[in-house]
Design a protein that fits this description.
By secondary structure, the chain is an alpha+beta fold. Helices cover 41% and strands 19% of the residues. The strands form two sheets. It has a seven-stranded mixed β-sheet with strand order 1-4-5-9-8-7-6, sandwiched between helices. A two-stranded antiparallel ribbon has the order 2-3. The protein binds 3,4-dihydroxyphenylalanine.
Length: 341
């Protein structure tokens, strides 16, 4: 009996200490210590022993049970430590590995320029307005002193959306002048950037959709000197303090007097070169004193109030700012081009 116990101890402890995983270990525990386990079976045979042998065998049996239990506990601890190590190894993140960078884009060069211009005007106390691209002919033309029959209203130049020519894609941002005067309390200082549409063929300087920024000031005692001073200051902020501007007389139906503003060519300093087509100057915008008919049409008392306005092409401004030679590059959205800004 003693020998059987000792054999059981040897065989079971060795099996337990070599159990490959926790399932196998549990199976061994049941095999040796379970209700129908081998140790239990042996103990049931104690009854067959002589009276005087029992205490010693009993003691040995208890010792064997304790050792088997110890072996199980120590194997269990070893197995769980090994599992932890395996998990740590499998789930390790090598923080020194180069990551996969998500490609994030950046602002389109034209919007870089738009943001700069907005900042300049906001700094001067202007507010930024937004308005509809699908516009009424009334706002795009009539209320801007451009009556029926005016050449600018030709179907060949304008995307009309209705047979009766009452709705169109705005050809300029100038309708925002009227929308501002009709909806805002005076005085008004506003700029309104946005898309405009004309039936133009695509080439290096034309596109059927392009962007303009409209600007307008209405207040008491506003003169042409305010127009010139403000626009000159804006150009110096945008293009540098040494920028030279000039104003030429022009005609627009909704301003009187009207002018165009040029900036001296940055390439040749005014002597004339291919960039300025030999002119020495580059045309930047149209402007003028808001026509009394336009003011009165919006219910503004021209005895008290006057105003000036301007409209400029945003693509052209960006092309000058970043020395871009072809308008199409701005719309094609080729990342090889866009990434350069
Ligand atoms: N809307 C004109 C155009 O598209 C530009 C313009 C000229 C806007 C004079 C104005 C202005 O506000 O006063 O050619």
């Amino acid at each position: 009996m003693k020998q059987m116990l000792q054999e059981l101890r040897e065989v079971s402890v060795s099996a337990i200490l070599n159990a490959p995983d926790s399932d196998a270990l549990e199976a061994l525990r049941i095999q040796y210590l379970g209700k129908k386990g081998e140790l239990t079976k042996l103990l049931k045979q104690m009854g067959r022993l002589a009276e005087e042998e029992r205490p010693a065998v009993g003691q040995l049996a208890n010792q064997v049970r304790a050792e088997v239990e110890d072996a199980i506990a120590s194997r269990r601890a070893a197995l769980s430590e090994r599992m932890l190590q395996a998990r740590l190894a499998a789930e390790t993140v090598d923080v020194t590995m180069p990551g996969t960078r998500a490609a994030i884009g950046h602002e389109h060069p034209m919007y870089v320029v738009l943001d700069e211009i907005k900042d300049i005007f906001i700094g001067m106390g202007f507010e930024i307005l937004d308005g509809p691209e699908v516009e009424q002919s009334d706002y795009n033309f009539t209320k801007l002193n451009t009556d029926e029959g005016h050449p600018a209203r030709e179907w060949s130049d304008t995307f009309y959306l209705t047979e009766d020519s009452s709705i169109l894609l705005r050809t300029q941002t100038s309708p925002m002048q009227v929308r501002a005067m009709e909806s805002k309390p005076l005085p008004i200082r506003m700029v309104a950037p946005g898309r405009v549409y004309r039936k133009d063929e695509v080439d290096a300087t034309h596109s059927p959709m392009f962007h303009q920024i409209e600007g307008m000031v209405i207040d008491k005692g506003v003169t042409m000197a305010d127009l010139k001073g403000t626009l000159d200051a804006v150009m110096k902020k945008l293009y540098g303090e040494d920028t030279v501007t000039r104003f030429r007389p022009h005609h627009f139906p909704f301003t009187e007097p009207s002018c165009e503003m040029d900036v001296q060519c940055h390439k040749c300093g005014g002597r004339g070169c291919p960039t300025c087509k030999g002119e020495g100057w580059i045309e930047i915008l149209g402007a003028g004193m808001v026509h009394p008919k336009v003011l009165e049409g919006c219910g503004i008392d021209t005895e008290v109030y006057s105003g000036w306005a301007f409209g400029m092409g945003l693509e052209r401004l960006a092309m000058r700012r970043f020395r871009i030679s072809d308008l199409r590059l701005i719309f094609e959205n080729d990342v090889r081009f866009l990434e350069q800004f």
